[in-house]
Design goal:
about 170 residues, four-stranded antiparallel sheet, mainly beta
């Protein structure tokens, strides 16, 4: 005689604090840049454009997913994108934030530079630093702040017509 015992356990769905879907005209692609901050989160992404030359944005979300500010990353004239792809956030020792990514030097080319943007808690860009050489594709994957207030970047560098190499750059904090 065989006796089977069955036990049933109800599996509960994962609890969500919030679940946000952004309209198509604002945030079509998130980058891997997300950072928790004291009162919420900072995220970055790109707009859905066909040539890949559109700007990235920084968006603040408060706890619970309430939308805060949204900053498009254009230059001072509002014509050229400060960043077009990538992105990693870090908090700085000064209480500001740094976003690292890449920007195409010229529409349609494969000549990309690394761009660092330092901005405050309101999303105002305080400074921009461009790292790159003519004829190279440079990209950043990781960034840390060093004890002297500078930054150490790990990434990728290659001649447009050649294979790539691991790339390490140390900057000052300005």
């Amino acid at each position: 005689m065989v006796i089977w015992f069955f036990s049933t356990t109800q599996l509960s769905a994962q609890d969500f604090y919030f679940n946000k879907i952004f309209p198509e005209d604002t945030a079509n692609a998130l980058s891997n840049a997300v950072i928790p901050i004291e009162d919420g989160y900072l995220i970055s992404g790109t707009y859905n454009d066909t040539d890949g030359e559109g700007p990235m944005y920084i968006r603040k979300l408060y706890q619970g997913g309430v939308e805060g500010w949204l900053v498009d990353l254009f230059d001072a004239e509002g014509r050229n994108a400060l960043l077009t792809s990538g992105g990693e956030f870090i908090s700085t020792m000064e209480g500001d934030y740094l976003l690292a990514g890449t920007r195409n030097k010229e529409a349609g080319s494969e000549d990309f530079d690394i761009v660092l943007l330092k901005f405050n808690a309101l999303g105002v860009v305080e400074w921009e630093k461009v790292i790159g050489e003519e004829g190279y594709y440079e990209a950043v994957d990781h960034i840390i702040e060093t004890s002297d207030g500078g930054y150490l970047l790990c990434g990728f560098k290659r001649l447009i017509t050649d294979v790539g190499h691991y790339y390490l750059v140390k900057t000052n904090g300005e």
